[in-house]
Amino acid sequence: MSRIVLGVAGGVAAYKAALLLRALTEAGHDVRVVPTPGALHFVGAATFEALSGHPVTTDVWSDVPEVAHVRIGQTADLVVVAPATADLLARAAAGRADDLLTATLLTAHCPVVFVPAMHTEMWLHPATQDNVATLRRRGSVVLPPAVGRLTGPDSGPGRLPEPHDVAALAQVALTAGPDALRADLAGRRVVVSAGGTREPLDPVRYLGNRSSGKQGWALARVAAARGADVTLVAANVDLPAPFGVRVVPVGTAEELRAAVLAEAPDADVVVMTAAVADFRPATVAAAKLKKKDDPAEVPEVRLVRNPDVLAELVTKRAAGQLVVGFAAETGDADGDVLAHARAKLARKGCDLLVVNDVSGGGVFGRPDNAAVVLAADGSATQVPHGSKDAVAAAVWQTVLPRLA
Ligand code: CTP
Question: Cα-atom radius of gyration of the chain, to the nearest Å?
Fold first, then answer.
């Protein structure tokens, strides 16, 4: 259990802070909410007190013998400020201590994540952009705002990302540190494939697999948090799009191949997490396959090979582009997991291969994962067991120094 301070500044998006608080406490964290006085115009202190189980104050004059304005920051493992308004970013950048939240920011030694939300004009104003640059230079994480509907009918950059995205990224900051969320993929284009393809047999049946898409979602979310322009080619995934990510839905391996090859040419990195079916039925029945009266009479399904998208990407990649594959492996009589994975890396010719050991049940649909990242140069980086977002963060840490 970690001690998280949830700072809430005075913007309409403060209502989402209650959901974020819920997500963080449900993940097992002890969360102390520190709103600004302005935030309490939008959400009452009672809501934050009930959901956090802690008293809520905004000023430094309550709880004086406890010296709360120093202690809350000093004892935190993570501070998340969501929403961070233009005013809050300005006061934090100036080092002010005119309420409990800004005082807490001055005494925190832990990672600090600002999640901005404001009108587009305020976000794009040079004053705000300078404050963001100052905070980032000092080591804080400032996430890019989501693009979309704002308070009124207008839309643009300035939306607070959805609480489940912020909670997942808070977990990354806690386990991997603020470096895992640096804004250093800005200007980079990333394509991630996720999910599992479905190969139709007839109009209602298909051959599929158990991939949930969660690992690809996490890779896309962390890349977008680091500023990348991310496209997610998603095969049959039933998850809300991560903030800032464009999702291209596909069904079959052929559709996935066409979508990935169309997106790849100007990408700096292509990551293939999708479980692409190696085989598909040779023919797709136009009508539903029916049972016959004789139970011994069953349809024979002949399979044909699907294209290997990863191998094709490698042969077509642009200069400087990195291609990352994923492999779920089990050990057997012919070799252990790493031996099979090294052989696969060599066979596919990609730059990196992220290897999951799925002996004994595996990772499908689970929120957590562990992996080894093998590189074509022979190196192997162990990724400790953690959330799929933490694995995603570790993968990006391995990819970044290799980007041209
Ligand atoms: N892959 C792909 N196209 C395929 C099959 C796999 O692009 N037809 C990609 C996956 O997205 C993944 C990597 O290749 O990044 C490894 O997938 P895996 O299924 O382990 O590879 P296979 O070549 O199918 O190996 P195996 O013979 O062990 O099934």
Answer: 24
What is the CB < 6 Å shell around ligand 1?
253, 272, 274, 276, 278, 306, 308-310, 325-327
Does 365 score more than 80 pLDDT? no
- Ligand 1 atom with the smallest distance to the CA of 310 is 7
Residue in this structure with the two tokens 């594959």, named with its chain if needed: 325
Strand pairing of 199-200 and 206-207?
A: antiparallel
Query: CATH no. for residue 341?
Result: 3.40.50.10300
Least confident of 21-30, 151-160, 179-188, 254-263: 151-160
Examine the residue annotation and report whether 369 is marked as an active-site residue of this protein.
no
Residues 177 and 393: their CA atoms lie apart, in Å, by 10
To the question of pTM greater than 0.90 for the whole model, the response is yes
Do you find a cis peptide bond into 83, omega within 30 degrees of 0?
yes
- Structurally, the chain folds into a number of domains equal to 2
Return the ligand 1 atom nearest residue 274 CA. 11
Q: What is the mean pLDDT of the chain?
A: 94
Do 208 and 336 sit in the same domain of this protein?
yes
Q: What's the gap in Å between 119 CA and the centre of ligand 1?
A: 44
pLDDT band at residue 344 using 50, 70 and 90 as cut-offs: very high
Query: Is the CB of residue 317 less than 8 Å from the CB of residue 323?
Result: yes
How far is it, in rounded angstroms, from Cα 256 to Cα 58?
A: 51
What size, in residues, is the chain?
404
Residue 8, beta-bridge partner list: 35
Domain range for residue 258? Answer: 189-403
Nearest atom within ligand 1 for CA of residue 193: 11
Domain boundary, last residue among 134, 152, 181: 181
Which amino acid, residue 340?
A: H
Measured by CA distance, the residue closest to atom 29 of ligand 1 is: 278
Nearest CA to ligand 1 atom 18: 327
Q: Could you tell me how many helices (H) and strands (E) the chain has, helices first?
A: 13, 19
User: How remote is the CA of residue 95 from the centroid of ligand 1, in Å?
Assistant: 51
* Annotated catalytic residue within 209, 236, 356, 369: 209
Give residue 256 CA to ligand 1 midpoint distance, Å.
13
Q: What's the average model confidence in pLDDT over 73-85?
A: 97
**Residues of the binding site for CTP:** 278, 288, 307-310, 326, 344, 348
Atom 24, ligand 1: residue with shortest CA distance:
278
The residues with which 375 forms a beta bridge, in sequence order, are: 352
CATH of the domain at 21: 3.40.50.1950
